[in-house]
Amino acid sequence: MLKEIDRDIWVAEQPFRYLGFGIGTRMTVVRLANRELVVISPIQASETIVSQLRELGTVKHIIAPNLYHYLFTARFKESYPDATLWAVPGLADKKPDLPIDQVIESDINNPWDGIEHVFFEGFKTIGLTGFDSLNECVFFHPMSRTLILTDTAFHFDESFPVITQLATRVIGGYKSLSPSLLERVATLEKGKVRGAVEKVLSWDFNRVIMAHGSIIEEVGKEKFKQGYEQFLGQAVNAAT
């Protein structure tokens, strides 16, 4: 079921387990000025969600925001065949069966008037075969001052299962907006990551929505800055 977060922005959540831990997953829906809907990191398209989206506007853009969040994109595209399925670079090679329409590029005009985006360069994560590039695109919705992340940071709290709380106390992401210690080990190109972080900090956001964890409603920019300074082991510049 969709939950309204602010004007023209909603989320929907579903259970999800990773490495045996219940971490949940979340999609974000943004309505543009022309009433087109942008769906970021789609979850399962239930009849309830499809009905709610129909009331909000027309789904025109479906986004797979990194190389891992694509599991439900094909089924979502089936529900909205006229929508454009956007994917980050490399996903077509990883999953050639996905019906990708467009690849998100960093040097083209913004295709979603009302949402800004930046590639999180240099960030890696732990995959089944070792250290993998995440190729994540992060988003900013200026109207609601909301930063939208997928796997570049987590924020778990008491609302999650006890075992998840215990694990994230150890590996990171418990009551802090940050990547895990596993990502810290995997990420070697810290200079590129710092550049991406500083681009994100040039945005005027307060709220942070991430795919895994609890939404941060206040002082999200400062929490993001603190989390990444700890991750990088150095200060980063935040635009005022």
Spell out the helices and strands N to C: EEEEEEHEHEHEEEEEEHHHEH
The count of helical stretches stands at 7
Mean pLDDT: 92
Q: Could you tell me the strand content as a percent range?
A: 25-35%
Largest sheet: 7 strands, mixed
- Helix coverage percent: 25-40%
* Shape type: globular
Whole-angstrom Rg: 17 Å
> Separation of termini?
36 Å
Give the strand tally.
15
Provide the spatial order of strands within the biggest beta sheet.
Answer: 1-2-5-6-7-8-9
Q: Could you write a compact summary of the structure shown?
A:
The protein is α/β, with parallel strands linked by helices and 240 residues long.
Structural summary, described in words:
The chain is of the alpha/beta class. It has helices spanning 47-56, 73-79, 91-94, 162-171, 181-186, 190-201, 220-232, and strands spanning 3-6, 9-14, 17-18, 21-22, 25-31, 36-40, 58-64, 84-87, 102-103, 116-120, 124-127, 130-133, 136-141, 146-148, 207-209. The N and C termini lie far apart (36 Å). The mean pLDDT is 92.
Descriptors:
240 residues, 7 helices, four-stranded mixed β-sheet, seven-stranded mixed β-sheet, single chain, 15 strands, globular, alpha/beta
Topology:
Elements lengths: L2 E4 L2 E6 L2 E2 L2 E2 L2 E7 L4 E5 L6 H10 L1 E7 L8 H7 L4 E4 L3 H4 L7 E2 L12 E5 L3 E4 L2 E4 L2 E6 L4 E3 L13 H10 L9 H6 L3 H12 L5 E3 L10 H13 L8
Parallel strand pairs: 6-7, 7-8, 8-9, 14-15
Antiparallel strand pairs: 1-2, 2-5, 3-4, 5-6, 10-13, 11-12, 13-14
